[in-house]
Each structure stands twice: as structure tokens, then as C-alpha cells.
Write a structure and sequence with these properties.
Keywords: Hydrolase, Nuclease, Toxin-antitoxin system. It contains six helices and no strands. By secondary structure, the protein is mainly alpha-helical.
């Protein structure tokens, strides 16, 4: 296990998660149109960034459990983690839904509305922390 790389991933996940929470708070409380616009835009980018970091984490965990394959998809990685008991069913479902939303944003097709993304993040807010705890369990 490359602990230094894992530590960087955990720090990046924490920072991204914290920034997502700040955007949510601004969206919930601000009346400033420009600030709201910037927070909504940032929320989209942070959500995509979180998933990019997640892909790095998946690679490390797959190597640790001896299931890594070059070119393995995130979807297949998540299925392996579910089979191995690394993810519970709720977290697996959150990540599957999130992956689809992330792809819609990143590839710019049928992009989710700001409201859809916001509601998804708020609904599954605790799962972001859970991912960080899973990552930390490999230190």
C-alpha cells in the first residue's frame, strides 16, 4: 500500500467534501445572486472532482485486495467492493447514482439541474464522510 498516496487522497477527499458543504450552506442561505451562481457552479465542479479522487481511491483499494485490473471501470470496482463487504448496500447505491450524475456533468449530456444535484448531495451528505472513513481504514 502506498500510504503517502492514500494520505493525499484522504486529504483531497476531506477538502473537497468540506468545500461541497460550504457551497451547500451558501446555496441554502445566501440571497446574493452572484454568490449563488458561483456556489452552484463550484458545487458541480467539486462533485466531479470528488469522483475523480474516488477513482484514485478505488485503484488503491483494488490493489490492496488483489483485484486490480488495468482499465477496470468504476462500476465494476464498486461491484467488487460491494461483494467484498467494503461497501454496504446504501453506500453502493449512492455511488452508483452519483457516478451517473457525475458522467452527465462531465460529458455534458442531459446535465442534471442545479436542484437535482443539490438534492442528491444533501440527501446523501453522510455518504461523503463514509467514503473518507473507508479510505482511512486502509492506513
Amino acid at each position: 500500500m502506498n500510504e503517502e498516496r492514500l494520505m493525499r487522497i484522504i486529504e483531497d477527499l476531506k477538502e473537497c467534501s468540506s468545500d461541497i458543504e460550504e457551497c451547500i450552506e451558501i446555496i441554502k442561505t445566501s440571497n446574493d445572486r452572484l454568490l449563488l451562481k458561483l456556489a452552484k457552479s463550484s458545487l458541480r465542479q467539486l462533485f466531479v472532482s470528488f469522483h475523480t479522487i474516488l477513482e484514485d481511491l478505488c485503484s488503491i483499494i483494488l490493489k490492496e485486495i488483489k483485484r486490480f485490473k488495468i482499465g477496470i471501470s468504476l462500476s465494476d470496482s464498486l461491484k467488487i467492493f460491494r461483494e467484498e463487504g467494503i461497501l454496504d448496500q446504501d453506500t453502493y447505491e449512492f455511488l452508483e447514482k452519483s457516478k451517473l450524475i457525475r458522467n452527465r456533468i462531465a460529458h455534458r449530456y442531459k446535465e442534471p439541474t442545479h436542484e437535482e444535484l443539490f438534492n442528491h448531495i444533501v440527501k446523501y451528505k453522510s455518504k461523503f464522510k463514509k467514503i473518507i472513513r473507508i479510505a482511512a481504514s486502509y492506513l
